[in-house]
Amino acid sequence: MSLPALYKWCEEQAEKFKAYICDTGEFLDESLKKGKKVILEAQLGAMRDIDYGIFPYTSSSSTIAAYAPIGAGIPAHVPDHVVGVLKAYSTCVGAGPFVAETAMPQSWLDMLRRLGGEYGAATGRPRRVGPVDIPASRYGLKCQNADKIALTKLDVLSAFTEIPVITGYRYGDQMTDRFDPGCDLEKYEPVVETIPGWQQSISKCRTWEELPDNAKAYIALLEKLLDHEIQFVSVGAKRDEYLLKGSWI
Predict the structure, then answer these.
(1) Could you check whether the bond before residue 164 is cis, i.e. omega within 30 degrees of 0?
(2) Band of the pLDDT at 246, cuts 50, 70, 90?
(3) Angle at 182 between CA 82 and CA 143, to 5 degrees
(4) What is the structure's pLDDT at 248?
(5) Other Cβ atoms closer than 10 A to 57
(6) How far, in Å, CA of 188 to CA of 166, rounded?
(7) DSSP per-residue string spanning the chain
(8) Are 134 and 165 in contact (CB under 8 A)?
(9) Quick one: average pLDDT of 11-22?
(10) Residue by residue, what is the 3-state secondary structure of 1-37?
(11) 78, 116, 140, 164: which sits with the fewest CB atoms below 10 Å from its CB?
(12) Angle, nearest 10°, between helix axes 213-226 and 134-144?
């Protein structure tokens, strides 16, 4: 690779993209004034937010929905519909407190990681996993001001006879169902309840009615504990492997 060759390649790529380069803030602002819908997709979750996450194990910026218009160049606008993306179980990348991974035996965690393919896309490093954590999820939904939930990877739980749910924490002789990133989370012990699993494939389900009763019961329990409607349910890794449970908006 030489500098002239690299420069020539850059010129060729620039020619393909130059028609799409503009002041994106102005473009989005004009679109909204015309009544068009703008969808902003986030990366990372509330626990990695510089202000509301588990410091110092955070990103260097804000990862919550309220910041999305600012980052997109339309700071005068406020999101009017926020879908919180929530896995059917808990995962964590990197260091820091993660109460969920202490909730179950290592063999259970290893099985969940394997079934969910929870390994870094680039590094192959195993992700930390655990059951769904209700207090932490409630906190994340609150930070995001989410009004609906997209529940992903429900199919991963299909192999388990029982599905554990973290409903609270024990700290010494005290119990709490509140998540506080400023507390000494490494000393928290999870309080776990279990419900029956469904132990059958759900990857072909495309309607709510097709789901097994125990899968419906798990979703209904999450909705009750999180006080949020689950709008989408992912039942596989492919684009069409999901079902729409609630209304679109």
Answers:
(1) no
(2) low
(3) 5
(4) 52
(5) 16
(6) 12
(7) --HHHHHHHHHHHHHHHGGG-S-HHHHHHHHHHTT--------S-GGG-TTTSSTTSS-SS--SGGGHHHHHT-TT---S--EEEEESSEEE-SSS--GGGGSS-HHHHHHHHHHHT-B-TTT-PBPEEESEEHHHHHHHHHHHT-SEEEEE-GGGGGG-SEEEEEEEEEETTEEE----TTS-GGG-EEEEEEEE---S--TT--SGGGS-HHHHHHHHHHHHHHTSEEEEEE-SSSTT-EEE-S---
(8) yes
(9) 94
(10) CCHHHHHHHHHHHHHHHHHHCCCHHHHHHHHHHCCCC
(11) 78
(12) 60
The pair phi, psi for residue 178, each rounded to 5°, is -110, 135
Q: Round the CA-based radius of gyration of the chain to a whole number and report it.
A: 21
Q: Which two tokens stand for residue 184?
A: 């000494």
Q: Are 149 and 219 in contact (CB under 8 A)?
A: no
pLDDT class of 79 with cuts at 50, 70, 90: very high
Question: Quick check: 123 pLDDT over 90?
Answer: no
Residues in the chain: 249
Is residue 247 a contact partner of residue 232, using CB atoms and an 8 Å limit? Answer: no
Cα 9 from Cα 11, distance rounded (Å): 5
pLDDT grade for 54, boundaries at 50, 70 and 90: very high
**119 close to 108: Cβ distance less than 8 angstroms:** no
230 to each of 72, 141, 146, 216, 235, how far by Cα in Å?
27, 12, 11, 11, 13
**What average pLDDT does the structure give for the chain?**
94
pLDDT at 91: 96
- pLDDT at residue 90 greater than cutoff 60: yes
